[in-house]
Structure formats: structure tokens, C-alpha cells
Design goal:
alpha+beta; globular; 8 strands
Length: about 140
């Protein structure tokens, strides 16, 4: 009788361990997604509120949401009294954002890279004002 009970308990333990493997694998996958490598960052990681620091300019706030028409983002940048429209994407850690003061023509571009080790929460690159080709370094940090 004890051997039968031991076998039953052993079988139940094995079943419980087997059933917990998918959950453990899901948890591990969830943890790795929580801090993606720079090359794993997608447009979904860009969604949210960001603080922009552009060399020689006052800090600005970006709010990015999922773009309704393609796998990218759109949103706004606020610089105090000035607000511009944004549209962009990220692919293989390369970041591109276009800025438009009037919502039609591109007034500035943001080209950079997701910082490795930042879990997709920091982007560094060059901001370029199109009208006079001024280029300045920028850092975006997710809030």
C-alpha cells in the first residue's frame, strides 16, 4: 500500500513539475521581453512619454502612440509654446523620427540608435533641422 501511495505521489509531483515547465518558460520569456536587447526593440517599446535633450536647446517632452496605419509610432513633441507632430519607427536598434511643425512638411529628423543595455528606454543620435541643416546631438529617455 505504501509503495502504491509513494508511486502516486511521485507521479503527481512529476505531473506538477511537467505542468509548471510551460509556465516557467513563459515567465522567462516575459522577463527577457521586459528588458529587450537594442536589436529587439520594436515600435511597441517606443509608445509612451519621453524626455528629449537636444544639445543647445531646452528639454522637450515627446508623447508617442501606436501609428494606426503602419508598424510605427506617431505623436507630438512639446517645447513650451511650440508643438510639432511626429512619426517614426525603429528597426534592428536603428531609430528614425520625422518632425513636422505644420503637419505636412518634414521640419526635422531624428536619427539614432537604441542604447544597448537601456531596455529600450534610451535613444541617442542626431537631430537635424531641415531648413538650415543644423545638426545637434540628442538623447531621448523614456519617462
Amino acid at each position: 500500500m505504501r509503495a502504491g501511495l509513494a508511486a502516486l505521489l511521485s507521479g503527481a509531483a512529476l505531473l506538477a513539475a511537467t505542468l509548471s515547465l510551460p509556465a516557467a518558460a513563459q515567465n522567462a520569456a516575459r522577463e527577457s521581453r521586459a528588458c529587450p536587447k537594442a536589436s529587439e526593440v520594436t515600435f511597441a517599446h517606443l509608445v509612451g512619454r519621453w524626455r528629449a535633450q537636444i544639445e543647445g536647446a531646452a528639454d522637450a517632452t515627446l508623447v508617442l502612440v501606436r501609428h494606426p496605419q503602419y508598424r510605427g509610432v506617431r505623436g507630438t513633441i512639446d517645447r513650451g509654446a511650440e508643438r510639432s507632430a511626429l512619426s517614426g519607427e525603429v528597426h534592428d536598434s536603428e531609430f528614425l523620427l520625422e518632425e513636422s511643425i505644420d503637419g505636412i512638411a518634414i521640419s526635422a529628423t531624428w536619427v539614432g540608435d537604441v542604447a544597448e543595455g537601456s531596455c529600450g528606454r534610451e535613444v541617442r543620435g542626431t537631430w537635424r533641422l531641415e531648413r538650415d541643416k543644423v545638426e545637434r546631438a540628442f538623447v531621448l529617455r523614456k519617462q
